[in-house]
Amino acid sequence: MKALLNVNPILWQKDHLYLLDQRKLPDETSMMVLDTAPEVTQAIKDMVVRGAPAIGITAAYGVVLAAKAAYATHPEQWQTQIDKDLQQLAQARPTAVNLVWALQRMKACFSTIIGNPIPVLLKEAQCIHQEDIAANHVMGTLGAALLPTDCRVLTHCNAGALATGGYGTALGVIRSAFEAKKIIQVYADETRPWLQGARLTAWELLQDNIPVTLLADSAAAALMQQKRIDWVIVGSDRITANGDVANKIGTYSLAVLARQHHIKFMVVAPTSTIDMSLVSGEHIVIEERAMLEVLNNAAEGATAWNPAFDVTPAELVDVIVTEKGIIEAPNTERLLALMR
Ligand code: MRU
Question: Which of 6, 80, 161, 206 is the most buried (most CB within 10 A)?
């Protein structure tokens, strides 16, 4: 099976960063070219690129662009010159820990650089990108091995090639299991209000000829009640030390529903999504987005609450799949053992 698409969602070519503009999918596949770190910050904020690992990779290339501009004007002080750019990148979206993880990894290279920083920084950004793709393939295999034959799965949001360096986390497992002929039915929540499921997951799976059935988010309960789902498979934006999982708003309700209906709940995320500095999910900063995303078609005068993510307590998670191995019934001890 091909890795996905003939379009690269994140591409570095000839000193420019290209992003597939995810706001325009599925109607249009157009690439946006970015030449400065502030442009990268804005693109992350505006969700031209979205999904925790993809945000991290994009920010890493943003550091390259920041250093390129600073080195051209202040070759001796490029590191101090890019401070502001790095701070703005770090604050572009608050919940996905992969963003600060990638920036820290880029910063860790600074002390080794003598002279022109671009070759070293570009190599590191490309490494982060390639390692993410490789991690997704490992997780795909590990996660698929947990599924029974004739499996029917439900996913939420888009945790696919579009949300990562390529292949995907939750969709990586679905791709691998589909290829192994274990999956007979993929359901995807449309994922209000931004419709990552309807616009992105459906498009991405259909590019790989994987049939997908969309449902309104509120239909998941009835689907489970009718015994039409075996596993829920989702990605994550941040997993805390005790195994609590932040992911797209609506994930928590799926986990509660899954437990009520004796359906297994799998979270697929690389270790770059695990934040051992936070003891539990209540410490995660949850991004709130513009009311307008919810108020489309609403009665004039209504206001809206629009949290982009929620936190699923670890006790509702049956398994976390990472590139370093799986953690069943996650807790602090098991996460510590994996991350050691
Ligand atoms: O607001 P988004 O579209 O960036 O939210 C994305 C998600 O919630 C994904 O499930 C998560 O980042 C994992 S992507 C592999």
Answer: 161
